[in-house]
């Protein structure tokens, strides 16, 4: 499953700086708006310590990590939805991504240009969000025209399509993001192809200065906004290469880059409702990303289409059991191996082996 995530925000707020930190790809960074014109794209491995723990017990020739694709685009400004700046290209580009990481400037520095000449994270967020809403309005309005034009006689399908498009418009005209709205399955299918922007989860990334890692006045304001919107917020200082950071999970000091990537990845997993399962054999130990609730049959298809076609059962060992009992044999002796059917819901950390007939 390809997770793609766009890095958006006003111009010159540190999007490309963050992109470079996350991906280790040196993007063009400069202190003027619209330094980025063509998107910077890079795929990074999702660090997962569990892979190392698995291969310590059961070495395989190769390890394959999950990946995430980051796309750093040009800045968005007022009028972007109508094509001002690089608006049209940027908004079209981010339509294909699953999550929007919205970088917001939360640091003071007179040397670094701000397009509005002062620092106000909530205003900045509202400018960008207004463009996302406007863009969706345009998409829905155009689709309504297209459906009406295409169908001289409005059939059931077109009626359903028009209904959901008008429903979307009602909310969008009132400034409501569509991710807050419940849609039936049919409604979802009818708007899926439009790839509307306000349906996508947003993660706010507060770009703060090195001194105020835990709090500053701008960060606090952005936090309040994010919490009101029920959107997650990650704070980081994109620029300082020397900063190291304590990782909450394992209490070791790790490189700042890894730490930011770790925080952002975790948040992406949470907003997209994702989890990881593993497959192990002598050749390869591999992490697979799937949506929580994926069935064993769907998981089998991810790994190999033959596994789905000839699916018999899936053997499941929980990650913790594999570690505690020192591998497959130990887990077996402790009665920690389960065999499940095609409807089994895969859980995070499951180590799966598919039994299938050819
Ligand atoms: N002091 C400070 N400067 C930063 C920080 N992040 C980025 N900058 C500076 O801000 C300027 C703009 O950074 P970019 O990463 O190019 O910003 P951008 O959002 O990609 O800009 P556009 O592509 O033009 O939209 C550069 O001079 C960076 O060095 C930060 O956390 N602190
Ligand atoms: Mg840039």
UniProtKB/TrEMBL annotation:
Name the UniProt record assigns to this protein: Redox-regulated ATPase YchF
Keywords from the UniProt entry: ATP-binding, Magnesium, Metal-binding, Nucleotide-binding
Residue ranges of domain OBG-type G in the record: 3-207
Keyword ATP-binding: yes
Record PROSITE patterns: G_OBG (PS51710)
Domain of life: Bacteria
Organism from which the protein derives: Candidatus Blochmannia vicinus
């Amino acid at each position: 499953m390809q997770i793609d995530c766009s890095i958006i925000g006003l111009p010159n707020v540190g999007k490309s700086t963050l992109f470079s930190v996350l991906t280790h790809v040196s993007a063009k960074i400069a202190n003027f708006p619209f330094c980025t014109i063509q998107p910077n794209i890079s795929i990074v491995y999702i660090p997962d310590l569990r892979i190392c723990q698995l291969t310590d017990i059961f070495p395989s020739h190769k390890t394959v990590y999950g990946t995430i694709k980051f796309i750093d685009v040009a800045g968005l400004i007022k009028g972007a939805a109508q094509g001002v700046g690089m608006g049209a290209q940027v908004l079209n580009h981010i339509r294909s991504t699953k999550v929007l990481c919205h970088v917001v400037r939360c640091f003071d520095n007179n040397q670094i240009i701000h397009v509005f000449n002062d620092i106000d994270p909530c205003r900045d967020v509202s400018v960008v969000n207004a463009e996302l809403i406007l863009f969706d309005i345009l998409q829905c309005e155009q689709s309504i025209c297209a459906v009406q034009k295409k169908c001289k006689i409005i059939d059931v399908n077109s009626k359903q399509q028009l209904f959901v498009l008008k429903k979307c418009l009602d909310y969008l005209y009132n400034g409501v993001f569509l991710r807050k709205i419940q849609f039936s399955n049919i409604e979802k299918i009818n708007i899926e192809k439009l790839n509307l922007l306000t349906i996508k989860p947003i993660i706010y990334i507060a770009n703060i200065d090195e001194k105020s890692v835990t709090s500053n006045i701008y960060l606090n304001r952005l936090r309040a906004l994010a919490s009101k919107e029920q959107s997650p917020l990650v704070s980081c200082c994109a620029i300082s290469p020397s900063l190291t950071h304590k990782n909450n999970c394992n209490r070791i000091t790790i490189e700042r880059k890894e730490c930011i990537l770790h925080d952002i990845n975790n948040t992406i997993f949470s907003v997209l409702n994702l989890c990881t399962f593993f497959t192990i054999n002598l050749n390869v130990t591999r992490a697979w990303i799937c949506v929580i609730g994926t069935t064993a049959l769907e998981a089998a298809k991810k790994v190999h289409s033959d596994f789905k076609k000839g699916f018999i059962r899936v053997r499941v060992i929980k990650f913790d059991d594999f570690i505690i009992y020192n591998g497959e044999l130990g887990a077996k002796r402790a009665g920690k191996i389960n065999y499940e059917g095609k409807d089994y819901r895969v859980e995070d950390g499951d180590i799966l082996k598919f039994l299938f007939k050819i």
